[in-house]
Amino acid sequence: MDQRKIAALKNASFRARPFRAAFRTFAGAAVLAGLALPVPAQDIGPPPEASPIRVLVESPAFNLGDWPAAIPFAEPSPLDKAHVVIAVKTEAPGVFAVVLTGRAEFEGQGDGFTHESPSGQSEDDVRAALLQKIKLALLRFVSKTPLSGRISISLLDQVKPTAVADPWNFWVFSLGLNGFLNGERTYAGRSWMGNCSAGRVTPEWKIRLSLSGHVKRDVFRVGDYRYESSSHGLGFNGMAVKSLTDHWSAGGFVNLSSSTYQNIGLSLQTAAAVEYDIFPYSESTKRQLRILYRVGATNVRYREETIFDKTRETLWSESLSATLEVKRPWGTVSATLLGQHYFHDFGKNRLQLNGQLSFRVFRGLKFNLDGGGSRVRDQLFLAKGGSSLEEVLLRRRQLATTYDYFFSIGLSYTFGSIFSNIVNPRFGSGSGTSIRLSF
Q1: CATH number at residue 70
Q2: Which of 206, 261, 305, 319 stands the most exposed, by the fewest C-beta atoms within 10 Å?
């Protein structure tokens, strides 16, 4: 090739360089312009119903380990599928800045916090504490998904119920008054019954007070014969229980009563008691098996001389009872077996079995079924003079018997302090080993 052709090629190559540079500049500008153009957003979509939210965790300077195991309501996700992006930045040894940014349906929502680990903590402890705070921060996003219905929150260091502000000071009250009047040409009857109760229940103490009474009067007319019959009864029951441990309790009872039916002018009974629950009291919302021992004295004045030639006496007695109670969302099933006797004569005793079935209708209202029976050997109060035919027919006097039984059905409604419900099962829900009587 001659020198003239070589020079021509060099000149052409030199002239092409500006064009190649311009092309590269134009191509680069086109690429940048393309990147700057808006790209249609990919539809990430809301979390599937009751499924974990999708999370991208960016923590380049600190290893969060198996974080999905610590946050079960979140699952790892790439950026294009994530609902929340969590950026963890280490600002200093043991100091982390965490930023949560919402995407898709959480667009525009976010949260952030700074976590400072105490000096001397191991890496595992730092990781656990940091993940716990991240878990709490994610709740603001989870609360807006169907998954929120499957999440419960609890406080590890329980705040005592008595720490809350309660205008009732944990007292619950119940009042009842009933009147009944009926009659016809040969008969007229009327009766009044009233009761009131107060209770204060906290984890440390349980106090129950109740007062009840009734008055009944009947008039019969058959030809020239006219007969009037009346009866009345009054009773006060009190109980105080102190919590000792998660299995043991101790307390006392006081009972004051008067009854024409039982030939009792006035009776005052005081007793001390101790109880052991096979299951921890903390499980009382599910199950209980309580064993209660009770010992005390009764000072009684009779209305008439008894078949044992007594007008008044002091009686010492003891009792042992076992109560099994199982609670479910629909209600409660319970059964109590009781044995008791007098110390001066072990032959004067009683064996009693009671059961209860209670269904929850709605808040505060319960449908109740009660039943029970007793083997009776302790009727020290029977009047020596016996009973008239009218008193027997009208059940105005307790008669000698070797057994009794009862069954009841009804509704109950409780109101008052909302902070005093089922927090202390000790000694049961009433006066412990009291015996039911029918009038």
Answers
A1: 3.30.160
A2: 305
CA dist 404 and 225 (Å) reads 33
Query: Is residue 228 a contact partner of residue 236, using CB atoms and an 8 Å limit?
Result: no
pLDDT band at 356 (very low <50, low <70, confident <90, very high): very high
A 10 A CB-CB count for 182 gives: 10
Same domain membership, residue 332 and residue 198: yes
Locus of tokens 């209860």? 356
> 215 with 252, same domain?
yes
pLDDT band at 318 (very low <50, low <70, confident <90, very high): very high
- The three-class DSSP label of residue 14 is helix
Q: Are 383 and 373 in contact (CB under 8 A)?
A: no
Q: What is the pLDDT of residues 208-259, one digit of tens each?
A: 999 999 999 999 998 888 999 889 999 999 999 999 999 999 999 999 999 9
Q: How many domains does the chain have?
A: 2
Largest CA distance in the chain: 165
Q: Is 351 exposed, middle or buried (0-12, 13-18, 19+ CB in 10 A)?
A: middle
**138 lies in which domain range?**
53-150
**286 lies in the same domain as 202:** yes
pLDDT at res. 392: 85
C-alpha dihedral (356, 357, 360, 363), degrees to nearest 10:
0
* 3 state SS of 62: coil
Q: pTM, whole model, 2 decimals?
A: 0.56
Token output for 101 = 């940014």
Confidence (pLDDT) at 416: 64
How far is residue 361's CA from residue 365's CA, in Å, rounded to a whole number? Answer: 6
CA dist 412 and 407 (Å) reads: 16
Give me the pLDDT at residue 65, please. 84
Q: DSSP secondary structure string, 265-302?
A: EEEEEEEEEEEEESS-GGGTTTEEEEEEEEEEEEEEEE
